[in-house]
């Protein structure tokens, strides 16, 4: 994959992140995913899992890599949980999410993701 294709993919990944983190998350998931202030009757891990799966699906669709989609879902879950626990703030949360997208593009560009 050439440099310009990788830059374009990075741009798509960041745009998909904004779509998945704001309009596709909505107030319900944003509140329900927080295990420290969960909504009554809603298992926080299901809400967090759904939110992380949306992000993983976006990455998988854009990159064509199931492996990167799975890694995105796992890391998104962990990063958002750290934000909910107040171990990191909003800006750090967003910076880490964008850094993940950069790592996915570097992995794709280097061929380290293989056929996954």
Structure commentary:
Keywords: Membrane, Transmembrane, Transmembrane helix. This is DUF3307 domain-containing protein. This protein is mainly α and 116 residues long. It is elongated and about 50 Å long. The chain has one domain. It is built from five helices and no strands. The protein has helices spanning 3-21, 26-32, 44-63, 66-84, 90-110.
Topology, number of strands: 0
Identify low-pLDDT runs: none
Count up the helices: 5
Spell out the helices and strands N to C.
HHHHH
Radius of gyration, in angstroms, nearest whole number: 14 Å
Question: How much helical structure, as a percent, in the residues?
Answer: over 70%
* Terminal Cα span: 15 Å
- Fraction of residues in β-strands: under 5%
Tell me the domain tally: 1
Query: Helices and strands: which structural class?
Result: mainly alpha
Q: Main sheet?
A: none
| Shape category | elongated
Mean pLDDT: 95
């Amino acid at each position: 994959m050439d440099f310009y294709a990788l830059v374009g993919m990075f741009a798509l990944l960041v745009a998909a992140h904004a779509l998945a983190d704001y309009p596709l998350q909505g107030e319900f998931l944003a509140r329900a995913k927080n295990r420290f202030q969960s909504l009554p009757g809603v298992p926080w891990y299901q809400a967090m899992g759904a939110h992380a799966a949306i992000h993983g699906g976006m990455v998988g669709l854009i990159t064509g890599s199931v492996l990167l989609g799975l890694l995105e879902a796992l890391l998104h879950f962990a990063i958002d949980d750290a934000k909910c626990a107040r171990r990191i703030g909003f800006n750090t949360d967003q910076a880490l999410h964008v850094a993940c997208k950069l790592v996915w593009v570097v992995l794709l560009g280097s061929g380290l993701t293989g056929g996954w």
